[in-house]
Amino acid sequence: MTGIRGRSVSAMLIGFALAAAACSAGAEPVVGAQDDAGEGSPTTEAATTSLTQAPTTEAPPTAPTTGAITTLPTSSSIEGQAETTVPPPCPNGANLSDQPASSIDADVDGDGLADVVVTEKRNDVWFVAVTFGRGGSADLGLFDADPFANVQVLGGIDFSADGSAEVALSIGGGAYTQSVAFVRARGCQLLRLAFEDSSPAAFLSGASIANVVGVVCVVAGPGPARVEQYEFVLIDGAADPLLYESVYRPYTIEGDFFVRQDGEGTVLSAEEVAAVGLFDCGGLGL
Question: pTM of the entire structure?
Answer without folding.
Answer: 0.68
